[in-house]
Design brief:
heterodimer, A: Glutathione S-transferase Yfyf (Class Pi), Chain A, domain 2, 4-stranded mixed β-sheet, 7% strand, globular, B: 2 domains, glutathione transferase (chain B), EC 2.5.1.18 (chain B), Glutathione-S-Trfase_C_sf (chain B), GST_C (chain B), transferase (chain B)
Chain lengths: 237, 226
């Protein structure tokens, strides 16, 4: 294997943004030291490496810190351009399309399912579920337009946009189990549903994506944390 | 080399996101057709070019639309890699740093600014101002780190982060009148103050940025959408 230097990744196994980076590292065949973080009790290393945002993922390459999952994935693609497949497409137009939809997903899909997690009433939850379904309809169209009948957004094998969308699937699966919502179905979003199955079968996904049980456990932990914070704030007033 | 290379930019004169794209096109020495949009009465061209967001800017290159200012900036740099200066650094690590700061600007600066501008309550406004100034302070540190003593975030010449922040300059210069506080001052943000002077003196800035007085007046009518 070509020299890759010293690679460390600070992450949270159920974070979609961390999953995205780990899949990129896997695609390039890179070995790295993975350090799971406790976000309820942030480590000194995390706070020192990302003082501005205090978030994961953080990639540390030969002592240099790289932040923000999209920037990290592009960094991996550029530094190890000679290793493994290209993550981003080569053509500038296709790159722009991939970046556009990745930004869309991180904004709209992410905020919808975070909203579902945080909802305190049934009405609130249903609102967010509708938002989510509207987003998925857009993505179904995007897939139809951009995949050219191939298996993945990027073509015959996964690429940047597959990682950007696919990394969120673990949360869709968890919420299906927790709240019974059907997000991807063969009726409304057939292309996306089929794509999601193929995505889950890739080596990179099998290696990196945590099982739904883990995701649900973490969701419960976060919910308990939020409740405790709210209770503390209520008594403090 | 011959053959049509057609660039069209759909925008609105006040939009900082549109200003970013104009800056990039000017810095690269690219000619383009600018088409001012009426956002109260969206054109067919805008709606078909940006069906997802229905917003400006949209860059149409040889008939193909590219949307979202940050996506457009990277596109211009890549599609015109051999034309004019490079907007992003060549080194992957420096590129990652530039991308981080551009994302930071978009995620952290704009929202508190809007709160400071539109808030009705005094408490909300004060909070918006406080958050905005904290972000500006972080950007002062970013400028120090990225410029390494040189004039711009991009070093000797204007780069990606300069353009991303520079697009917002007319708003930043109007902040005192619109939000009730100066974003930059000699005590806390001397580097950014100097950077503002340098940036506004650029030819590209003179063409790409709206007149601050005109912008402030327009913003005050509350018909402004950013």
């Amino acid at each position: 294997m070509a020299a890759e230097g010293d690679l460390k990744l600070l992450g949270l196994s159920v974070s979609p943004f961390v999953v995205r980076v780990r899949m990129a590292l896997h695609m390039k065949g890179l070995s790295y030291e993975y350090i799971e973080q406790d976000l309820f009790n942030k480590s000194e290393l995390l706070l020192k490496s990302n003082p501005v945002e205090k978030k994961v993922p953080v990639l540390i390459h030969d002592g240099k810190t790289i932040l923000d999952s999209s920037a990290i994935v592009q960094y991996i693609d550029e530094v190890w351009a000679a290793m493994g497949p290209s993550i981003l497409p080569v053509d500038p137009n296709e790159r722009a399309t991939a970046r556009f939809w990745a930004a869309y997903v991180d904004d709209k899909l992410f905020s919808a399912y975070v909203g579902i997690n945080k909802a305190t009433t049934e009405v609130e939850r249903e609102e967010k579920v509708s938002e989510m379904l509207a987003v998925l309809e857009q993505l179904e169209e995007a897939f139809a337009k951009n995949s050219n009948g191939k298996a993945f957004f990027a073509g015959d094998s996964i690429g940047y946009l597959d990682l950007a969308v696919g990394c969120h699937l673990l949360w869709l699966k968890a919420q299906h189990k927790m709240f019974g919502v059907v997000f991807l179905d063969a009726g409304k979003t057939p292309l996306l549903e089929a794509w999601a199955k193929r995505f889950a079968e890739t080596d990179a996904a099998k290696e990196v994506v945590p099982d739904t049980g883990m995701v649900m456990e973490y969701a419960k932990k976060r919910q308990a944390y939020r409740a405790a914070v709210a209770a503390a704030a209520a008594t403090a007033k | 080399m011959a053959g049509e290379d057609e660039l069209k930019l759909l925008g609105t004169w006040a939009s900082p996101w549109v200003s970013r794209v104009k800056l990039a096109l000017h810095l690269k020495g690219l000619s383009y057709e600018y088409v001012e949009q009426d956002l109260d009465n969206k054109s067919d061209l805008l709606l078909t070019s940006n069906p997802v967001h229905k917003k400006v800017p949209v860059l149409i290159h040889n008939g193909k639309p590219i949307c979202e200012s940050v996506v457009i900036l990277e596109y211009i740099d890549e599609a015109y890699g051999t034309t004019g200066p490079s907007l992003l650094p060549t080194d992957p690590y420096e590129r990652a740093i530039a991308r981080f700061w551009v994302d930071y600007i978009d995620q952290k600066l704009v929202i508190p600014w809007k709160v400071a501008f539109t808030a009705d309550g005094e408490e909300e406004k004060t909070e918006g101002i406080k958050q905005m100034l904290a972000v500006v302070q972080t950007l002062e540190g970013a400028l120090k780190e990225c410029s390494k003593g040189k004039p711009f975030f991009g070093g000797d010449s204007v780069g990606y982060v300069d353009i991303a922040l520079g697009g917002l300059l007319a708003f930043l210069q109007g902040t005192e009148e619109l939000c009730g506080t100066k974003p930059f001052d000699i005590a806390n943000t001397p580097l950014l103050l100097a950077w503002v002077e340098r940036f506004t003196a650029l030819d590209a800035a003179k063409v790409a940025l709206p007149d601050v007085t005109k912008l402030v007046e327009f913003a005050k009518t509350k018909r402004l959408r950013i």
